[in-house]
Amino acid sequence: MYSALNQIGKEIRIRALWLILSILLTFVCCYTFSEELLFLLAKPFIVVSKPNSYFLSTQLTETLTTYVTSSVLLCLCVCTPYGFYQMWCFFIPSCNQTQRAQLNRYCVLSTLCLISVVLVLFVWILPTIWSFLYHLNKTSTNLLTIQLQPKIYDFIMLTVRFVFLSSVCSQIPVILLSLIEYNVIELQDCVQHRRSVWFSCVLIAALLTPPDLWCQLTALLLIYFVIEFTIFYALIRVHYDALCCSKR
Length: 248
Prior knowledge:
GO terms for molecular function: proton motive force dependent protein transmembrane transporter activity. This protein is about 80% helix and about 0% strand.
């Protein structure tokens, strides 16, 4: 018993050491190429605001703070999958063949959802949001002149917030399917309580998008259709499993 616990503790220390080393190396790389990474985050706004695509830095330490903070956040985003991989390698020997297949399926689904949402975010959602906010700060008459000059720190933190919230929302199908498959929630309850699902989608869309009707409506429909598609897939899965069991 003591030997087994000692072996487990040794494996945890080794995996924690590899994770810490990967975080340090990733942070060094992110900080070394912080200007290029900030350009990638600011590119959707630069495309919209040309030729007035510049940012302000009102304090001496604001640029340094932006570089360090963005490097830390990007480092955490990059190293989080590696941390889950280390956890997966630690727990997978104790799982049977069925559980391993389920974990592999959830990992693939989670990765596909995350990549799809990030691509849609940078290709379509962020340009739409920045276009709305940029044109909102431009006046159409000569009575009042408003010129947008965003602070670099505030802009990067707002962009990171959109990326973080979108990444969390991309895992809704994975979480919902896992809860249904492990009988934490009943599939019949998800089908019956459609009003609660709709209300939750309205709240999520209101928190994620700017105060624009079309942006909120688009986000609401996307989130709602993702949840509906997940429930529909779960229904097909349940009926398929029941049909396979009846044939056996």
